[in-house]
Design brief:
With 405 residues, the chain is of the alpha/beta class. It is built from 11 helices and 24 strands. It has 2 domains: 3-114 and 249-329, FAD/NAD(P)-binding domain; 118-243 and 331-381, FAD/NAD(P)-binding domain (3-Layer(bba) Sandwich). The chain has helices spanning 12-24, 47-52, 61-64, 125-128, 135-151, 164-176, 196-208, 251-254, 300-319, 361-379, 398-402; strands at residues 3-8, 30-36, 40-41, 59-60, 71-81, 86-91, 102-105, 108-111, 115-117, 129-130, 156-160, 181-185, 212-214, 219-222, 226-229, 234-236, 239-242, 246-248, 265-266, 279-281, 286-287, 332-336, 342-347, 353-359. β15 and β16 form a beta hairpin.
Amino acid sequence: MKHRIVVLGAGYAGAYVAGNLARRLSRADTEITVVNAEPDFVERMRLHQLAAGREIEALKLADAFAGTGIRLRLARVTAVDPERQVVAVADADGGGSGSGSGELGYDTLVYALGSRVDDRGVPGVAEHAFDVAGRPSALRLRERLGSLGRRGGGGRVVVVGDGLTGIESATEIAESRPGLSVALVARSELGARLSAGARSHLRQACDRLSITVLEHTSVEAVEATRVLCADGTALASDATVWTAGFAVNPIAAAGGVEVTENGQIVVDRTMRSVSHPNVYAVGDSVYAVGDNGRPLPMSCGSAGFTGRQAVDAIVGRLTSRKIANTKLVYTYNYITLGRRDGMLQTVDDEGQATPRYMGGRTSALVKEGINRMALWTISHPTFGVPKRKHRLATAPNASAEKAVA
């Protein structure tokens, strides 16, 4: 009987892991199933661009996995039962290969369900705000911005949250739709986590794009046509974009997998659950401690490192090979400021911004190159396929466990 590997989620982390497992393990011994609610690969790093009006063609997962032997199941994950080693799924819109409700059994589970927008308990966010955490929500915002532009009256857009997503969303919208008035609400100083030079560059970009910045401002409610701030200020808004945080899916916690307070799965150095050894977590879903002793932030970069470590660990354990410790680092942030400007901000071992940063057109081009390379990696999962794939071992190799102890 083949070893059943089920990957939940086909974002940057999940699609990467599935493709590389298919690349390195023999089909004679393993079957890999990817469960995803949408038929397309979502370039989350570019959703703010999609929302602002850029044309971004979606990669079909069926095309990306063609020829790999990976089975694509278009369905929503509704529950995980690690004791019975099954996953419950429900029909996803659009149909597709293997779609339908029921249960999937697994021998090894890779949990990569990512994160979603966190309303932080603020009233009205769910009912009235837009976000760029998923493709459907980004498309809804795109339609709203388009309708404001067609109205010709100069609509007002309020972006709440000055993290990387908020900064990129505000600058992209302001540049792509100059007829709209854009405001960016920051809880503290604008770009507080950046170096002094980078903060100055960011302010110049906001001035150039006519973005109104409100610093040291907390939002306590979102209404259909305005944003209410804790100091009593009411900001008129025709489209409120909520980027004030992200939360992970609660399915792992509900299934009894050990998680942190915010729901991320607790793992060892190889991304294996500390409570359920045949469950691995990658991407935003995992609480992974980096080489600097600090938790890796939710990011595409972290998804790559955790995904690579999980692949090495799964292949090593199943084939009785030594498991290498891949690096788990976070050394910089790339931030786009519209289409022709950007910043690279390096961080130190403590996760703090260093004085060194790079800004301007070159940074924007490098970030675009990173986006293209990430997409290429997902769309070519079998690139460099070895002539001989690894066969599964008949029994675990104790040395593989000692290698990562």
